[in-house]
């Protein structure tokens, strides 16, 4: 008897997004912990919560966009090659790629902003107490 091969198990994309957000959150927490004294000095010298959040968020968003600049052309090329292998050929539009990059940046910003807000709202005297 011919036994039908079962398809490979597929994971849910939400699980991958959740795991990557946890990793990004951990990296943001580690970075904020390393820069606690810097943020404390900035707060004492008059920096606002928004300035501190912007400082931490922009450094991570730059990394996200660098990763997108590296990954998007490779993924676009490979996806177009894969799609051309089907009987009914189709192309990948740049709008889909743009939406995915903007969505990735938005999810990364929301993840980072939670930790950035915690760091910005921390008491600056606690960070500078031992200096």
Plain-language structure description:
- By secondary structure, the protein is mainly α.
- It has one domain (19-128).
- It has helices spanning 13-34, 36-44, 49-83, 94-121, 124-128.
- Helix 1 (13-34) runs parallel beside helix 4 (94-121).
- It is elongated.
Q: Main sheet, how many strands, which sense, barrel?
A: none
Hey, roughly how much beta strand do the residues contain? Answer: under 5%
Number of domains: 1
Overall structural class, as computed from helix and strand content, comes to: mainly alpha
Fraction of residues in H or I helices: over 70%
According to DSSP, the number of beta strands is: 0
Could you tell me the radius of gyration in angstroms? 21 Å
The residue-averaged pLDDT reads: 85
Ranges where pLDDT stays below 50 over 5 or more residues in a row are: none
Characterize the overall form: elongated
Question: Helical element count?
Answer: 5
What is the rounded distance between the termini? 77 Å
Produce the secondary structure layout.
Layout (H helix, E strand, L loop, with lengths): L12 H22 L1 H9 L4 H35 L10 H28 L2 H5 L3
Features of this protein?
5 helices; mainly alpha; 131 residues
Short description:
With 131 residues, this protein is mainly α. The chain has 5 helices and no strands.
């Amino acid at each position: 008897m011919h036994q039908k091969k079962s398809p490979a198990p597929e994971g849910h994309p939400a699980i991958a997004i959740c795991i990557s957000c946890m990793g990004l959150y951990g990296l943001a927490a580690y970075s904020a912990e390393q820069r606690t004294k810097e943020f404390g000095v900035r707060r004492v010298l008059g920096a606002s919560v928004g300035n501190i959040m912007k400082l931490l968020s922009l450094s991570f968003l730059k990394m996200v966009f660098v990763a997108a600049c590296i990954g998007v052309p490779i993924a676009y090329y490979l996806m177009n090659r894969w799609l051309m292998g089907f009987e009914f050929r189709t192309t990948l539009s740049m709008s889909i790629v743009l939406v995915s990059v903007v969505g990735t940046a938005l999810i990364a910003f929301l993840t980072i902003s939670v930790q950035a807000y915690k760091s910005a709202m921390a008491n600056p005297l606690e960070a500078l107490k031992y200096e």
